[in-house]
Amino acid sequence: MATRALREVVGRRRVGAAGIVGGRRFSDTAAAAAAAPAGEAERGDGGAGKAVNLFTAVNQALHIALDTDPRSYVFGEDVGFGGVFRCTTGLAERFGKQRVFNTPLCEQGIAGFAIGLAAMDNRAIAEIQFADYIFPAFDQIVNEAAKFRYRSGNEFNCGGLTIRSPYGAVGHGGHYHSQSPEAFFCHVPGLKVVIPRSPREAKGLLLASIRDPNPVIFFEPKWLYRLAVEEVPEGDYMLPLSQAEVIRKGSDITLVGWGAQLAVLAQACEDASKDGISCELIDLRTLIPWDKETVEASVSKTGKLLVSHEAPVTGGFGAEIAASIAERCFQRLEAPVARVCGLDTPFPLVYEQFYMPTKNKIVDAIKATVNY
């Protein structure tokens, strides 16, 4: 099915002159916006809202992406019947099996096909069933997708590529279904890495990722697929990439996180407030390129920083944040940057509660940092 779809796409499109693929540039955001279909460059607030969970918000975003751009395709393992987390439910029935289809159980093939499809001026929305399964596709993503534009001198690109994948703890996943591999991809120039914290964020950030003129890795917190529910606009809207959000104002310490960990950090902020500690909480939202200015401004005010993520502490993206802020705010820091993260072990099953960066661990680190 994947091979036949690619042949049909190739038959309809041709590679044009230097810098143009299928008659359309993807070299930068301005060029993409200028060439985009009417209404694609700017979106409203999405209109009236309705309370939905996170997987439903993702499903809404995929429906809109396919409906507003006939060049969009959704594919991956089992997406034809809705996927294991039901994020693609109803897509094949509405848009047909030529645009929404299952692939072989081969992540390298999924990524390679997606790169080729995007290179032919399409929106390739590929699903890797679990983030733990993305490693066989690592070579395609890192050595092909990330470098496609650079190595061709901007004559060709695969900027229409978005790879979705559920990441992180799920309560019973063990070491093959609970990993958080975002730091691997943050190390690669040419990719964007986006992780939402909630249903509204997931829909707006996913639509922005799909329409962004660069390859995007979009990790979805599987823990929150059904657990997180909030009011989400039913229409079409996008949230800005590479723009962090201050979701709680504070004066004593800055807390930074992303994805499912934001809920844990928010609980820690509440507990710390009972002891008179005022926490400022920031959702990074986009890890690469990340919003250093927002974090720097907050730390310049509070003088203290704590970063928390589920991935192992060594080499985690929290280390990059800590190093960057130490460089930018060295004279204003009043305590060492704290990191509350997963342990440097394979993700355990029965000992998951000891591995996870819990609320109590974060509260202890907040108090130690504030009282340094």
Q: How does this structure look, described?
A:
It is found in: Mitochondrion matrix. It catalyses: N(6)-[(R)-lipoyl]-L-lysyl-[protein] + 3-methyl-2-oxobutanoate + H(+) = N(6)-[(R)-S(8)-2-methylpropanoyldihydrolipoyl]-L-lysyl-[protein] + CO2. Its EC number is 1.2.4.4. The protein has two domains: 185 residues, Thiamin diphosphate (ThDP)-binding fold, Pyr/PP domains (Rossmann fold, 3-Layer(aba) Sandwich), CATH 3.40.50.970; 127 residues, Rossmann fold (3-Layer(aba) Sandwich), CATH 3.40.50. Helix 3 packs parallel to helix 9, helix 5 packs parallel to helix 6 and helix 11 crosses helix 12. It contains 14 helices and 14 strands. With 372 residues, it is of the alpha/beta class.
**Top-tier CATH class of the largest domain:** Alpha Beta
**C-alpha-based Rg, rounded:** 21 Å
Distance between the termini: 60 Å
Low-confidence stretches: 1-42
- Strand content bin: 15-25%
The H-and-E topology, N to C, reads as HHEHEHEHEHHEHEHEEEEHEEHEHEHH
Question: Helix fraction?
Answer: 25-40%
CATH-defined fold name of the largest domain: Rossmann fold
What structural class is derived from the secondary structure elements? alpha/beta
- Mean pLDDT across all amino acids: 90
Write the CATH architecture name of the largest domain.
3-Layer(aba) Sandwich
In total, the number of strands is 14
- Largest sheet data: 7 strands, mixed
Overall 3D shape: globular
Main location: mitochondrion
EC number: 1.2.4.4
GO molecular function, one term: branched-chain 2-oxo acid dehydrogenase activity
Keywords: Mitochondrion, Oxidoreductase, Transit peptide
